[in-house]
Amino acid sequence: QNTSSKPVYSASTAKAWALFNGNAGTVTNSFNVSSVTRVGTGDYQVNFTNAMSSTNLTILVGTNTNTSGGFNVWYSQVNSTSQIEMFFYSIAGGGSGAFRDVTQVSVGVFA
Asked: Looking at per-residue confidence, does 110 or 92 come out higher?
């Protein structure tokens, strides 16, 4: 885990990023991410080591594939300059859906 506390000044680089296991919320690797909290099924809070300068953030997310034959939908919200929250919803082939944990999540945050 990269725990560097040096601020990132380039506008073209991610201000924070992480790779984590969605089943447990454990961080595999990260930059400027102090922890990931699994709040509930498919609901994760990402906490920053150093706060962002504002809440105007761009959040990019990638996940592993959906093995149920459907697809994953995610959405995020900015809780504060030091935390974002992400929600994952899986829609099965038949159209029904539910919140679901994903095995692997990659997230990048740009400010």
From this structure: 110
